[in-house]
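Hi R.,

Here's the chain you asked about this morning:
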Amino acid sequence: MDLSAEVYACCEIPWAATTTEGNYYSVQVNTHFGNVHVPAIVAMTTMSHGSGFGEGISPRAYEGTVNLFGDEKPEWFDRAEFCTPEALPPRTSVSLKFTLPDWSKLYLPDENGQPVANPPVFEDFYDCVLFAINQALFSAVEDGPIRVGPISHGDLIGDGLVRLNPAISNEPFYVRLPSTSPLGSFSSGRDGYPALSADSSLEVSHYEVSSSEPARRLFSWMRRSVLRAHRKEWAEAIVAQQAALEDWMHYLVCGIAADHGYTSAEFASAGFEDKNAAETFGILSAHLGGDPTPPSKAQKTVWRNRNLVVHRGERATEALFEEARNAALFLQDWSRERLLAPDIARRHPITSWIIHHANTPLSATTKSAIKELLEQSDVTSLPMINDQRTLEIFPARNISRPATCWGKGVKVPRPFG
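And the predicted structure, written out as tokens:
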């Protein structure tokens, strides 16, 4: 039975995606439906470049103040810059086409046998569409100095519309690609500043582990923070920076758990996904060693600044964002440096490998073995290959040295000897 479906989707996003030399761009990209890779063709047409929009004083504002009350023309009038009434906000129409490998799980039967939407699978479906658009944007600017994205529901101008045509019936039907109300100044309509590459923020590891959800989520928050910062949306940038750092720490914990031989089921049952940032940092400091005080202070700084703008109504400023960003980069650099220490890398070869790849201080045989394992399996579901103690002994937090969980004189199991 052929459960595939042709998918056509169209939506609008609030910036000019293509250059002034040409307002049309199309590209084939790879997206994902769950963990299944899906090729897609994406076309983007810039409807408005946003020139002059949001810049200067609105003529309507002048008419509603100075002219309305019959005041004399202010001295600053001749120096003021007025935006043109016809200036439109930047916007791009995006359309894409791909084949969904299996659409049958989008709907489930209710107690009366009638199909109802299956929210988790629909979220995967929406992610498939939005990620394809995101990749097309990256492709459009890969030869230039700017980066945009990632695309989320909040980036859409109104709802998008998706056409699905199942092969089994050849009867198309339509569903909405929902938009959500964006936060803060994101809805201001300003053209903002182009987002430079994510190299100026947190960086993901050199070795992408398959298309695993932690890696995708990490990329998403890192790029989102960069985008918001370059658009001077400081509150959103601070929140995204904290989320990126938390996912960075979680990403390392995934590697550490694999180094200790835990399967994905054990990882989930132990509640690692639900641990807060302090507990996650406790795990890292336990395994990475060194002086935990400076990175612990950095982690708390990022979390504090996030709470200031989210819970205490603090006015988000560039200085507050820079403080959070610098603290996050310090913690990342600290974890990278610790994983370059030979004794730490030897105890945690997979974690060191996924962060430093070829520069890992491991033997050639160890590197070859790790590469083979990572090409075959998810980092959180690798077989028992390192410290094979039970899950209960895995340190939760506040253990200062890696030797505490390994014990003195313990030999690293092959092939990591």
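The first strand starts at residue 5 and ends at 13.

Let me know if you need anything else.
M.
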